[in-house]
Amino acid sequence: MADIQLTNQPHRSAKARHPQRPARTRGERITRTLILASFLMIVIAPTAVWAWYLWARAQDQYVSTVSFSVRKEESDPTLNLLGGLTQLTGSTSASDPDILYDFLHSQDIVATINADLDLVSRFSRFHEIDPVFSYDASGSLEDLTDYWREQVDVDYDSSSKLITLSVMAFSPEDARDIAQAAFDESSRTINRLSDIARDDATRFSRGELQKAQERLTRARQEMTSFRMRTQIVDPEADLAGQMEVLSGLQSQLVEAMVAQDTLRETAREDDPRVAQGQRRINAIQAQIAAERAKFGESDQGPNGESYAQLVAEYEELATDLEFAETTYRAAQASYESALAEGQRQSRYLAAHIAPRTAESSVLPDRPMLVLKAFGMLLLGWGVLLLCYYSIRERR
């Protein structure tokens, strides 16, 4: 009897555990159903809605591309010497493409092109049908700039200094016109940069030339005032004339003294010619003393000035005038050289890919957008599922 009870005891425990299996199965079924429902609601349904929008509402967009580089015009001095010809070389400024890259993303170009082409109407013509990819016409300039940065792709190769501009619009003509306008505005900007660089290169030389010209004018005016005050064009020439007069008087004095000595040897002491000769000698000596006094400190020159003072003042003025003329010629040559260099190295844009009218639309890339949306939703759903199981295990 005891053996019968022992053999029936496992059967009773199995029967006791058997009613719990349907409860666990029902819970797992509910969980699986909820997981499947969440997958359909979070992943499949939004992906289907997004696919419907892309194929039913999203408008086709066309792309126009322009690619250009900043060039600089230079001349070969060898060719200039041989034939007076100039050669265009392809040197590229290192900083200008960086400036243009930043300019193509700025509000300045957006405002300028909007004023010329009315970007708002071109970008918002399908806003009622396609509010996702089109622009809201009620937006501000900042909103238009943000939309511009989405529709205009600027690719800059820092090694080759090439800029490629891809413009997306809702019609081929709009894309081509906007790309051409962006290129034209970039060309005007680089021309302004070239003008600024030319002004910077010549501003210092122009200032030095003006200073040298003013100094030369002042030196010439001081020289003219000196000549008008002294009534002497060249004191050195006038002094040379005075030296000739003094030399002539000294020659006359020597001749008179020789004649006087000869007369004294042949004539008597009371001969009137001896007294007359002595008076002539005295007169010549007095005249020589007077001429020599003009070169000293006494006021014997024109207008009560000594020739020494006049010559010293004239030499100072002549030195200032010569230095001013030399400085002016050097400043003028430097200015002309800077001006020629600035004109020779003028910048311009060279487009090796011109904007063209697209024949077919390539955007939006509907299959790729659907795959991206599905992948992101699936990833989000997977994260939520992991969080659910983590919380369930902790309980």
Structure report:
Keywords: Coiled coil, Membrane, Transmembrane, Transmembrane helix. One of its GO terms (molecular function) is protein tyrosine kinase activity. This is Capsular polysaccharide transport system permease protein. It comes from Paracoccus isoporae. This protein has a four-stranded antiparallel β-sheet with strand order 2-3-1-4. A hairpin with a 4-residue loop joins β2 and β3 (about 160-170). The model is unreliable at about 1-20 and about 75-95 (pLDDT under 50). The chain has two domains: about 60-75 and about 95-205 and about 345-395, Bacterial polysaccharide co-polymerase-like; about 225-340. The chain has helices spanning about 1-15, 20-55, 75-85, 95-105, 105-115, 120-125, 140-150, 170-230, 235-265, 270-295, 305-345, 365-395, and strands spanning about 60-70, 150-155, 160-170, 345-355. It has twelve helices and four strands, in the order ααβαααααββααααβα. Helices cover about 70% and strands about 10% of the residues.
